[in-house]
Amino acid sequence: MRIAGHRLSLAAQIGLLVVVANILAALLAPWIAPYTQTQQVGGVWLAPGEGGFLLGTDQLGRDMLSRMLYGARTSIGIALTCTILSFTLGSVLGFLAAVVGGWLDQILSRIVDTLMAIPVLILALLVLSALGASIPVLIGVIAILDSTRVFRLSRAVGMDIAVMEYVEAARLRGEGLWWIIRREILPNALPPLIAEFGLRFCFAFLLISSLSFLGLGVQPPFADWGGMVRDNAQAMEFGIVAPLIPAAAIGILTIGVNLVVDWMLGLQGRTMEDSR
Amino acid sequence: MLFSLVAKRLALGLLTLWLVSLLIFAITEILPGDVATAILGQSATPETVAAIRRQLGLDEPAWWRYLQWLGGALQGDFGVSLANQREVAPQIAGRLQNTLFLASVAAVVAVPLAVGLGLLAAIRQNSLLDRGISISTLAAISVPEFFIAYVLIFFLAVQAGWFPSMARFDPRMGFFEQLYVIALPAATLVLVVLAHMMRMTRATVLNVMAQPFVEMAELKGVPKWRIVVFHALPNALAPIINVVALNLAYLVVGVIVVEVVFVYPGLGQFMVDAVARRDIPTVQACGLIFGAVYVGLNMLADLGAILANPRLRHPR
Prior knowledge:
- The complex is a heterodimer of chains A (276) and B (316).
- Chain A has 276 residues and is mostly helical.
- Chain A has a single domain, classed as Orthogonal Bundle (MetI-like fold), CATH 1.10.3720.
- Chain A is 70% helix and 1% strand.
- Chain A has helices spanning 10-32, 64-100, 102-115, 120-131, 135-162, 165-173, 177-213, 225-232, 244-267, and strands at 2-3, 6-7.
- Chain A has a two-stranded antiparallel sheet.
- In chain A, helix 2 runs antiparallel to helix 7 (177-213).
- The longest helix of chain A has 37 residues, at 64-100.
- The model of chain A has no long low-confidence stretch (mean pLDDT 83).
- Chain B is 78% helix and 0% strand.
- Chain B has 13 helices and no strands.
- The longest helix of chain B has 38 residues, at 224-261.
- By secondary structure, chain B is mainly alpha-helical.
- The chains are: A mainly alpha (276), B mainly alpha (316).
- At the A-B interface, helix 3, helix 4, helix 7 and helix 9 of A face helix 1, helix 6, helix 7, helix 9 and helix 11 of B.
């Protein structure tokens, strides 16, 4: 299999398959899920396969498979929204800082430095303690905090491109700032940004899952993978695998995305360690 | 020269710390969510809200409250918890100690292991061992901390019954009993940091191995182990110190989730509880401590690099 003329490695093919399967599950959840996410359909914590429930049931006797499918919708949907927002914000400001430079660059860079001085999870906890946990707050917080990384990358890439002759030529032609960013900088900055999109998605997805796991993310009764791990955590004591199912699903999706990203970075002669 | 460089980095660290304190205060006090309404919940009437606001000093200007808060924090006074009306500082002290114990045990195991394995992977680049390490560490950095934790619980605590699944930690226990109780949370942290640290060590050493002086040594017939130990390692030392300190800073994040999984009585779990109860003074205190540790370790990373690499002492 090939993408844009490059042969996919075996690892990247597996990764792509995982990503596509997850997206399909999220999109098709209402049509393929046997039950709704809140319906109580059987005994508590039935083992996978027992009573005809493919993945068993959860702590309230709800079908695990249905909740996993709806959970994919919630978790992936929120993470994707965060990533798109953080990319729009981060790359626009990053390119702007690179092209305009001067005081604008100074101010934006110092704000980003301060936000990056402490871990995102700590900042997110601080904001949630002030505003309370709700989905719009979660999306806003993660998008803004995550955009700092996008800003750093777009600024660095934009700086390299802004000194090229063709940008100088566009400037001398009298093209406006937006035209230069849109038509000259963006197309040339795209390859590293696309790989970064995968990394940032993983980051947002893991963060939202961790917050839900801590009880500070998506609130019940809505299914969300991190929250499902938390809800079923007590089953562990009895040797029941219920909490491992959503936890493994989170891991499989992020590994899948990372395999594709790793391949993309390899094409650009970079490694994941460079972009941390 | 060296002294002024170190002093400059220390000053930058202090400045960062001050900005962080400003950020923490701004997020928790100036964002529209109102503490008074949060405490009262449903029973909030305009009169009770006004009374609580007066009691908490919220009717005073923000900059004055910030100075009072910062001044108190510098003297170890973090105010009174909104949840139980007790002083925050004494409640935090013991938990901070527990968290530091857990994190240091994890660090003592993880650092030598990570540097050793990272070096090994770099020396045997593209061997089966290197590929195995590469894939397994990619998997380990991709999955959430709680997944690793529950897998360990499932196999080592529930199935095998070797370790307790909950860290019922008590400072009065003997040292070895303490180690036994925190075996699984510490192992989880080790696995999380190990993967990051190993990958970065490997990348760093490979970077050095690609330098012309290594090729020169190879060409004049120096044995491989001598190249790695005497030519590459001294040059890789600065970035490795950097990597180690950065990953120790990463423990700050890992420890929060891991403490919740294992119900470990540490600062991370305390902070999460405080956030859920919207106990702002406690959250501020925990945030400031975690932030300070993180900023401090990042500063140590830079200082270590300056001391280990003479070239960094002479900026262009």
